[in-house]
Amino acid sequence: MEVVEKMIVSEQRSPKIFLSGSIRGGRQLLEIYRLMYHTLEKAGAEVLSWHVADSELEKVEMEMTEEEIYSRDMGLLVKSDALIAEVTVPSTGVGYEICRALVQEIPVLCLHKPDASVSAMVLGNPDPLIEVRAYPNETSLKQIIIDFVMDL
Amino acid sequence: MEVVEKMIVSEQRSPKIFLSGSIRGGRQLLEIYRLMYHTLEKAGAEVLSWHVADSELEKVEMEMTEEEIYSRDMGLLVKSDALIAEVTVPSTGVGYEICRALVQEIPVLCLHKPDASVSAMVLGNPDPLIEVRAYPNETSLKQIIIDFVMDL
Question: Cα–Cα distance between B122 and A23 in angstroms, integer?
């Protein structure tokens, strides 16, 4: 019983996060994804989908089939304790992953720049598991992420 | 019994379709969405989300809350027999709706221009309910839609 409790505590200290950002929708926010990744790692989280923040991702995925990419991403999502999505850049994959995470009943944090035109499927979503926040600057972005991880 | 059978036949003749296309992700393919809408109506389908093909949509939605838009779209999706999405323009909402339709276990047809960079969540999706087709021209687009509706 003690061992189980220790495992639970250890798991809580290092929550597994699925980081979701645009890939084929456009990589213009790659530096933000990298900042999110580093903030999460510093906050003690484990980012399972670290490849989203990888500048060499396109090269790696060129060697993979579409089915392999889908299978990798959905396999990681199933193992995740929460999903954090950057939703400023419209992305069909990000929308799909947000929905899958809610079906899986894990917390979802959606972050966007204040001037972004974010989908109503995100902004108007009544699911209590989803939280949507605008970040005016990088300091604010980091703080929102740290607070979210601490609450998991 | 005869009445029930007639109702079933009538329903099959007029399948309810959720047409999904980019709204806040960009309206550059509005004319394609309009063509899809008209093709569906001519094929005997009922397009529940006809607003996606409405050039005045932004004005209408400006009067609605985010929650009202979400609720309208998900309410229509629940009543739909199939979803047809145009996935050329990356859209978080379209990705979300594709996932919801698959969770609801209805057929999903995703259409895109041959040169589009389509998400692996669509192209690599192993769900037997999803079909993804590139259309080289409008004639081909119309034929794919008609064939899909006839098979419902």
Answer: 13
